[in-house]
Amino acid sequence: MITFDFNNMLRPRLGGERGIDPARLDALSERFRDVHADVERRREAGEMGFFELPYGGELVEEIARFGEGPGQSFENIVVLGIGGSALGTIALRTALLDPFWNELESAERDFFPRLYVLDNIDPATFGTFLRRIDLRRTLFNVVSKSGGTAETMSQFMIVRQMLEAELGDGYRRHLLFTTDPESGVLRQLVREEQIAALPIPSNVGGRFSVLSAVGLLPAALVGIPIRELLDGAREMDERCRTADLRKNPAALFAALQWLADTDQDAPIHVMMPYVDRLRDLADWFRQLWAESLGKQRNRAGEEVFAGPTPVRALGATDQHSQVQLYVEGPFDKTICFLVEQNPEEDVQIPSLYGNVGELAYLGGHTLGELLRTEMEATAAALTRRGRMNMTIELPRVDARSIGELLHMLQVATVYAGALYGVDPLDQPGVELGKQLTYGIMGRPGFAEHRAEWERREPPRVEWTV
Predict the structure, then answer these.
(1) Is 434 annotated as catalytic?
(2) Which residues of the chain have pLDDT under 70?
(3) Which domain holds residue 356?
(4) Start-to-end C-alpha separation, the chain
(5) pLDDT of residue 269
């Protein structure tokens, strides 16, 4: 079970006027009961479908069967998706597979396929990848709930053309869509071209979809135990059913971050794993926190321009690039450390230079000891300087703990949305950018956006040196 130490967020630990007054946290307890009731109401109404994902069902068994059966006929799995259609899968891959998975020989991977996630459309990257991959041994998982995501659908059309040129009608066997169960372009193509598909529940948004087929299918294909992921998420869900703020880990995380922003003028929320395998989980969290909470208007339609700014750092690497700012710069940040209590592997540092004081102290210790000590020293330095920080500790970076952590952060996000008074499920700012892109690229029905762009575009001034 993961644990959450938030003492270094509080004023008694930090000293002076820095940090959150415990009385403020206690005062928030009554309000949280209303927040919890509102979230539970929306959950029961079916607005927040991600709450039901940990409880599995027939779809999970279908995914497991495909992963253990037909999916193993491929040497490469390639996910085409962007944002919430990719970041969760990347986080699972990094956390739960060997760091050099795709470089291992087949036997070293227990004959599970390699896993690639192409989450951007830079032609230099995408074109190079397609020249290197063996199409005949590859399954392309196209992930888009709407089926209208410009980036993903562009990738898909390029891949489909290449597959058909290489394989003729056999191209269908190398495609699998993860999309809306009823509507959208990909669902239309499923019907017209008889391409296999898995559903994304209609009430699950992209950034909350990691424990749906979006993340579970690629995970199952490479041997990640998806039932253990869901077991962990379900255990966390049960811990979060209480309206007692002090006993609900997701509520504490949300409340502390909200109080840090609104009471302490600390709107920058840094997530800093001291485990390489959690690096991309922090990236996944950045989208979850930013896209859910950064809103111009609250749920009443009033302008509020709300939202904290999430930042990803990595220990110990970023002790040498960012921590100077965190320790001595503005008091506008919270730091959340992610650590592992019992790492599976450690490496001994040899006692080679006993006569060199600057090196002798390292001999006989391990890299794990050094990493843990540096995290604790960084937390102590921040605390001594009055900087708010907290620690989430996983017993092991395994499927169960990752399921717990993912679900906790998703639940915390909807609690934070209620505290900020915004809807954490929509993303109108993203939609505006999409509409302008559609208009400029000439998509039917969006001509007015192109005209609007051309009216507002300032004259370009050319500068040469």
Answers:
(1) yes
(2) 429-443, 445-465
(3) 3-42+232-420
(4) 60
(5) 98
